[in-house]
Design a protein that fits this description.
By secondary structure, the protein is an alpha/beta fold. The chain has one domain: 3-Layer(aba) Sandwich (Rossmann fold), CATH 3.40.50.720. It has eleven helices and 15 strands. The strands form five sheets. The protein has a seven-stranded parallel sheet with strand order 3-2-1-4-5-6-13, sandwiched between helices. A two-stranded parallel sheet has the order 7-10. Helix 1 packs across helix 8 and helix 9 packs across helix 11. It is globular and about 55 Å long. Bound molecules: nicotinamide-adenine-dinucleotide.
């Protein structure tokens, strides 16, 4: 499925726990790790934010491999979570489970509090008790909020979130920092930038546009097309995550977070890493690339910027490059084509 170019020495004896393993990104990360011989324990609460059949189908594929152990459990179920930790003693945790999406956070903020704040807290409590070697946690470019300086750098202030989704992810980051500091837990925070690819999320632009264009329905073009996203292909994202598993932030020189021009020295083995393509694409270009691949024009409805949305996202990935030597490199048209091929096959469209 996802074919990666580089392999680094990560011990295969260590159990890896992935939360959100039936989700878009969790599925791909789990698939890659098990296909490389790692033992992966996947936890997913199968929330109904979008079509649960898609989630179940992702888990079914992973379950074909004997090295994958699936649990349909919410992180909010402390008893089950604790049993899983006792049974498998995972040394590496990749925390991807979350209530995602900017717009839905206006409709159902409770779900963000439950999953992103309480769910993460429950996980951190288990991590604290179980001698975990490295926890890697998904955050988002949305935390850059009202920042106008581009590209977004990990040291930029993130105290002006524009949506409750962003607020809940800032809370995730902050909680993990205090646990890292107090209990010396090596922690990496990923800030992902608009991830796309096969098995993608039905609430995201590429999926919605493809479905609407093929079904002759109108697509909403937000901010009249004048917005940019740093679209990141799933294979590139998985490659970056894989390489970062081995980059535990545990050395003293990594324990300094620079905030503005001040250096604040903290003892936490904790760092934030942007993972993005570092090449913002205009929404209009994104749509025309998709139209070319589908050989069909979209019916467009131009609408204003939606509350909570950023006008542009653009990742500074110097830190990712210096830690891993890797830079995302999939061309937008190649990535979209791979998505469209998967979409047509999955939904049996000729
Ligand atoms: N896809 C992107 O472009 C993108 C961008 C930035 C950040 N992220 C972050 O990356 C992570 C993965 O995103 P994704 O696109 O795969 O989303 P996704 O919705 O496909 O996957 C998340 C999974 O977590 C599960 N889940 C939610 N709450 C849970 C809980 N309390 N307990 C157990 N399982 C729970 C859901 O059932 C779902 O399968 C999320 O943390 C998301 O916020 C994604």
């Amino acid at each position: 499925m996802v074919e990666l170019k580089s392999k680094k020495s990560l011990s295969k004896n260590k159990n890896i726990l992935i939360t959100g393993s039936a989700g878009f990104i969790g599925f791909h990360v789990a698939d890659t790790l098990i296909s490389r011989g790692f033992k992966v324990i996947g936890i997913d609460g199968m929330t109904d934010y979008y079509d649960t059949t898609l989630k179940k189908n992702r888990h079914e594929i992973l379950k074909k491999n004997a090295n994958f152990y699936a649990y349909e459990v919410m992180l909010n179920d402390k008893v089950s979570l604790s049993k899983i930790f006792k049974k498998y003693n995972p040394k590496i945790i990749i925390h991807l489970a979350a209530q995602a999406g900017v717009r839905y956070s206006f409709k159902n903020p409770d779900s963000y509090l439950d999953s992103n704040v309480l769910g993460t807290y429950n996980l951190l409590e288990e991590v604290k008790k179980n001698n975990v070697e490295h926890i890697l946690i998904a955050s988002t470019s949305s935390v850059y909020g009202a920042n106008t300086k581009l590209p977004f750098n990990e040291n930029d202030n993130c105290n002006l979130p524009k949506s409750f989704y962003a607020s809940s992810k800032i809370a995730t980051e902050a909680m993990s920092h205090s646990y890292s500091l107090l209990y010396c837990i090596p922690t990496t925070i990923f800030r992902f930038f608009t991830v796309y690819g096969p098995w993608g999320r039905p609430d995201m632009a590429l999926f919605k546009f493809t479905s609407s264009i093929l079904n002759n329905k109108k697509i909403n073009v937000y901010n009249f097309g004048r917005m940019k996203r740093d679209f990141t292909f799933i294979n590139d994202l998985v490659e970056a995550i894989f390489l970062l598993i081995n980059k535990k932030p545990d050395k003293p020189e990594n324990r300094v977070q620079k905030i503005k021009n001040d250096s604040i020295s903290v003892a936490a083995p904790w760092r934030i890493v942007n993972i993005g393509n570092s090449e913002p694409i205009e929404l209009t270009k994104f749509i025309s690339t998709l139209e070319n691949i589908l050989c069909k024009k979209a019916k467009k409805k131009y609408v204003c910027l939606q509350p909570g949305d950023l006008i542009e996202t653009y990742s500074d990935i110097k830190l990712l490059k210096s830690l891993t030597g890797f830079k995302p490199n999939t061309k937008l048209s190649d990535g979209i084509e791979q998505f469209v091929n998967w979409y047509k096959e999955y939904y049996k469209i000729k």
